[in-house]
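Self-study notes.
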Amino acid sequence: MKTITTGILSLLCFLLAWSASGQHMFDYSDIESGRFDQKDVRGIRPTADGLHYTVLDEGRIVKYSYKTGEPVSVILEPDDFPDGIGDYFFSPDEKQVMVWTNVRPVYRHSFGADYTVVDLAAGDRYTLEGIREPQFIPGGDGIVYFRDNDLYLLRRGGAPQPLTTDGEPGRIINGHTDWVYEEEYSFTRAFEISPDGRYVAWLRFDESRVPEISLQRYTGALYPEPLTFKYPKAGEPNSIVSLHVASLEGSRTAHTVDTGPETDQYIPRIGWTPDGHLFFYRVNRLQNHFELLLCDGAWNPRVIYQERDRRYIERPDGQTVTFTGKGDRFVVKSERSGYSHLYLHSAEKGVIDTLTRGNWEVTRLVEVTGDRAYYLSNEGSAIRNNLYSVRLNGKGKTKLTEENGFYSISPAPGFKYFISRFSSASTPLTVRVHDSSGKVIRTLEDNAELRQTIANRKVPAREFFRIGNGKGAQLNCWMVKPVDFDISKKYPVMMYQYSGPGSQQVLDRWSMGWLDVLVQEGYIVVCVDGRGTGGRGADFRKVTYGNLGGPETEDQIAAAKYLATQPFVDMSRIGIYGWSYGGFMALNCILKGADVFKMAIAVAPVTSWRYYDTIYTEIYNGLPGDNEWGYDNNSPVNFAGELKGKLLLVHGTADDNVHFQNAMAMTRALVEAGKDFDMMVYPDDNHGMAPTGRHHVMRKMIDYTLRNL
């Protein structure tokens, strides 16, 4: 009996010590189960009056008052769509709502779905199955949508009418982007309806000359099935893109807008000014010359703004130009000063005012309304942001949010109210309603349960710091240490990075993943944003131009060497991990830093920029024929013989973005060099290791690290 009692006491003491140490307080099953997922408020849509908003709430669409927080009405009940609502949007007059269900992904952004239009007064509805990108016609009773490479017009009570008829898979696309525009310019709807509902403008992609890529799909059939699509690799032909416009009333004869004599160019956005004039962006193949063109009433365009750069102009998007007033003035987001800032321009007079200035960056233009521009900037710190507003004469700057962390903003029309989403490295997501001055009116979600879970599980927070790279630059970093960290001990280190141009991983915002499990197992995890990353001005970011993977690799190696000098780091046990561009970097680091890194994990890596697409690769590395050194000197394929440490190479065979070809090229080089390495292949999974392998690869990486680092 005495022996049993002693054993129980010993076990109790062990369990208490184990709990106090914080070790093994959670594992990957907790992450996979969603225990650490942040709750959000789904489907926020401001109403046109600027006084109300709608949300998706337990299968319902509910309308709330910004001011009181009280529900005003229930737009749709769960019984209306028993299979659930994927998302929704209203017609411009808010008399109809369009709901989509049965979503079927195509590529990263594109998807087909079943769309149901509901008349909110009459309760009538109709459904279109398997279409893409439907849009309500302003002031009308119809929609325009994309299907089978053509555009269609559907008036209420009528039959679909084709607006284009020459769409053909693998050849012509009308009103929807091709693969490379979707991936790199981050939009899919390539048509826009005029504010008065009279016209539709669209882009036509002739991808006849674009080379094809074929990926094998191992579906269980006797023979693999090829997935073939057009994919322009660096230096290869792009689609020829043209701009067209047609009336939605009466005769629908299309007019072709003159986009210039050069066809080897990009048209990355089209749109309409508030007073109904068509505009479009034009970018040359080298992506160092950006132009904004405005059409007159006869569809004749003229250049009203342009910008050049000796290296490149970052890919333009919907925030690059924002028209205001009647459309005679516009705000440009530009880094002409060396940092991303806002400028007010006139279509007739050119630049009017500089709205923001300083050695910091406007990270997002949220809205321009009345006489003010509202924007997010990292003025206080490159790793944080806050919301500001400024008058369109550059005066009266006001800070509207105060907390140190990371915000995203959903404004009401006229900015009478706004909803903020905020988190920091130590604080999960909080969703709040603010008035126009920034005052918090109420909290919609504070993730109180998750905060308690974090406290109970003793999840350690990130520590932010800077290190020098030995070349005059200070690099932003974060570190996560085990909760029972002892400075007298030596710990293995896993470095995580992405490193792609303009990216930022060192941000003061909350997240958890498989790397946090390593911390529970006694590892230190470190992330470093090297040269080429964003938030710190053009010179810091563009230093990698023409030399992708050069300065970035130097900085990760320098960071690892710095960590090796710290008394609590086991210099013989430093590893590095990355996915996509980060995988490319992990390979370069284990090869060019063979004496520094013991282990690397490279997931879905680019192994030669010759294999990647035109828009992304050429903006940062130029054309292959003009820069052979830049394409080959940093390709890990050419340094396979330098491998000394342990390497895990991971790829999905159906990756439409970074093709499996990259992994095969790396494998061949390593085999020819006589190097031993490990490899994990995920059949029919895409770039994100979906639909089946996402959690499997996370568990694999944890296990591989525990065994090899």
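Second protein, same conventions, sequence then structure:
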Amino acid sequence: MNGAEALVETMLASDVRVCFANPGTSEMHFVAALDTHPDMRCILCLFEGGVTGAADGYARMSGNVAGTLLHLGPGFGNGWANLHNARKGQSGIVNVVGDHAGYHLKHDAPLQSDLDGVVGSISHWTRRATDGSMVARLGADAIQAARNGQIATLILQADAAWGDGGSGPVTAPPPTPKHRPDADRIAASAKTLEEPGAALLVGGAAIFGPGAELAGQIAARTGCRLLAPFFAPRIGFGTGAVAFETLYYPAEMNAEFLKDFKRIVLVGESPPVNFFAYPGKPSTPEPPGCAIDRLCYEDWDVLGTLQALADAVGVDGTEAVSRIENSIPDSETGPLTPEGIGRGLARAIPEGAIMVNEAVTASAGIWPLVNTAAPHDRLNNTGGSIGECLPNALGAATACPDRPVFAISGDGSAMYQLQCLWTAARERMDITFVIVANKGYQILHLELAAQGAPKPGRNARAMFDIEDPLLDWVSLAKGHGVPGERVDTEEAFAAALAAAKATEGPYLIEAVI
């Protein structure tokens, strides 16, 4: 058994059974090892950003570690942006990135780079395997780190991959115990939540599933406001879901929303911060004098902290938790708008759907109408690096093959990871891609105004708009093996959603607004 085989068997023994991949020559022994272990599902993405974004989506929806295979420094660098998003979302990912054999490094071959530096800039955990006997143990350590919600990267030198794998595979240990606030801190925060002007801001595992239920019970028992972040990695919406008040993206709207709060207790979430700095404005949106109580950090024991907090405030299961009530909007006719997209989706999505959101400027019109539809999970862009939607959808569909996935993306963002359409077609994934075609990076027009800059002139418009030539998403989809259609009316959009439902595998709708 060589080092590569020991690593694959270590991954399988540790329940890592999916590897999103874009391999190269230095990874050929690892590829061969994957080939002899059919229990490992290997999914090819044609660009490394698709690899890492898919691993992120898989981790969010499965709760399990996702594996990636990347090629040297340039390959890892291509996947860096979506690893940034994954890191912000606390997704556990194990990257296996190949490197030259140790004796070859001194020759500075064309693809050689500062791989350790590139890897270290985004990974919580990184090690280099220099011979085969150490590969399995390092792989197990990487998986343990990823189980703690970290980005773990194992640099697998080619000579370690083909070298003797030593004693063979190792089963990764369970996650290390996570920190929980002490009883006095819990008690103080419990008292805080009962005071006027208090809010509980939660994130991570506290905004879907059992965690959301606990958070809702705490809010109902104490009377505090229950808040969720705008860029939630995964959050439950739809009929019967716990009703959160979500923060806003625009700095002014967030400041207005938070102006009357006196104290905010944080569990599994960072303090609110404006996405960017703006001239003459503060960096954080809370009002002066508002106390921020960071009870539980994102990488601490979020569910355990919530349970302790629930016990401290006297939750007994009889609380009248505030929930989202069902409201399906009536369909309309006429030119397609963001609101029309929202109405169509609200009427079309089934219970248990997964909605991946990177609609950007169209979001304000779409999601309020979808929020009250059938129960669903929503994945958002956690780190702000655009191009996350399409690969996140691949990962979500891999993790939950029995649940339909809807990927709602602006046209500019979707172009970053266009190649994901091919992977969706190859893997026959049940994904409906809705490309909101507004002919540009519209968010940049808003940010230009927010920075106090003049109205865009010729050069600014040339950098923001994608109108000359216009993108043809139906042709682009067809070229990647995905059927699709272009619509510009609300009634045509509803018909296209019905066609997508009737189509086996992926379907693309170019929604022109």
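Instructor comment on the second fold: The chain has a mean pLDDT of 96.
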